[in-house]
Amino acid sequence: MIQTSKIFNESKGQHIWLAETICEVHRQMYDLMVIHLRLQNPELFNQLLPLLEKAYMYGIKITKKLIDYKCMLPHSEKILSVDEVIKLRQLRIKLDAEIETFKMGINMVGKSNG
After folding, report:
1. Among 1, 27, 45, 82, which lies 20 to 30 A Cα-Cα from 90?
2. pLDDT digits (tens, 9 = 90+) for 51-98
3. Are 29 and 66 in contact (CB under 8 A)?
4. pTM value?
């Protein structure tokens, strides 16, 4: 049976920053895997998918940590506008929700297999 990815399917296309991010590169890799590997080599696809999902989650956690550091910089109130701080906090909340969604997906998969 060929696996699918809840985390990539739900967050697909939600590019937040103008610059390319690690999460966006993971999405592009997922697209290529689905297009070129899913049907031609499902066994390899199924082996790569969990690793790619882990890498994606690590990227989200790194982004979250960088937001925290940016907001904690000395004199950050002089560097960031109020709107930027609000935007960063909203992004952090969104990333927290994405991590929780992913954890729930892992728990569901683990329960259905065991």
Report:
1. 27
2. 888 888 888 888 888 888 877 777 766 777 778 878 888 888 888 888
3. no
4. 0.63
